[in-house]
Amino acid sequence: MIVNNYVAMRAVAMRAADPLSPQMVLTLHAALTEGTLDDPADAGRLQRIDDHRVSVTTHDGMVVHTPPPAAELERRMEELCRFANATNTGAPAGNAHPYIPPIVRSIITHFMIGYDHPFADGNGRTARAVFYWSMLHHGYGLAEFLSISKILREAPGKYGDSYQHTEDDEGDLTYFILHQLRTILRALDDLDAYISRRRAETAALRAGLERAAEQFNARQTQLLEWIDREDVLELSARLVANRYRVTTQTARNDLGLLESLGLLRRGTTRRPITWTVASDYSARLTVLARPATEKGREQG
User: Fold this and answer.
1) Would you state the pLDDT for residue 289?
2) Active site residues
3) Residues 188 and 230 placed together within one structural domain of the fold
4) pTM of the full predicted structure?
5) Per residue in 259-299, pLDDT tens?
6) CB 136 within 8 A of CB 13
């Protein structure tokens, strides 16, 4: 499922400038649900009249939402796409609709896919993918890096309640919109915190690299900086040799040195031999870069 989400998000980012179409929604659903459905034929298709129509139930089986009939799904999907593609000035060409802020339009688009429940399964995942498309389409580029699903998984009851309150109050979307806005704000806070942590870690690592210059030659220092800068996860002697224009044996010696210091882990395959970056790479490098007197005090 993680791979499916990644593939779908890449597709969303690549097609953010395109208008939403029923076929795009079906393609996203197929990507998100590949290998996860009871019937693989359900991937990328709307429910049909002769299908058992899905409904939204509680854990104990009580039906809390009955979606529209399958016969209406194709028309409703086309109408939803027209709504999602409306311009920021408030209306598709030839129609007079009130102005809707782009972020609210994205949230409503999310809601409607969940409300219509057009697929046998994977409706929530598809709704969130289309929400990300809408945000990117309307210029909210940072949305690509927001982890909305993580927050919804932590409090699924509140997410479900926002749907239920909307339906109980004659379709008043205020409940769902406010819930999603709060979720977006929290996701932004989480992103800010992550960026701050990464900045602090990078600053500490760069300082460590400067102090560690005496332990490594220039090429090895460049290799360490590359691993940090580009989040390199796996290395081979050939890759390093080509990058730094040295012999394969020299590259193997460099990688062996980093392995001996605990910065890399040798893989199990023999041909080609590969090394993976240690999960505690930054912490180990920081310790290596400390003055010997400071290390001695810690060990004592």
Assistant:
1) 66
2) 117
3) no
4) 0.74
5) 998 999 998 877 788 999 998 887 887 777 665 445 454 55
6) yes
The pLDDT value recorded for residue 225 is 84
> Pairing between strand 63-65 and 274-277?
unpaired
| Residues annotated within a binding site | 56-65, 121-128
Over its C-alpha atoms, the chain yields an Rg (Å, rounded) of 26
Residues of the chain with pLDDT under 70: 58, 88-97, 212-213, 289-300
Tell me the binding residues for ATP. Answer: 56-65, 121-128
Please tell me the distance from the alpha carbon of residue 69 to that of residue 85, in angstroms, as a whole number: 24
Token pair 């980093």 in the structure block, residue: 258
Show the domain range for 27: 1-86+100-194
Residue 297 lies in a domain: no
225 contacts: CB under 8 Å, gap ≥ 6: 209
Decide which of 141, 160, 194 is a domain's last residue. 194
Reported in sequence order, the residue ranges of the chain that DSSP labels E, i.e. its strands, are: 56-57, 63-65, 234-236, 264-266, 274-277
Q: Cα separation of 166 and 178, whole Å?
A: 11
CA distance 118 to 212: 58
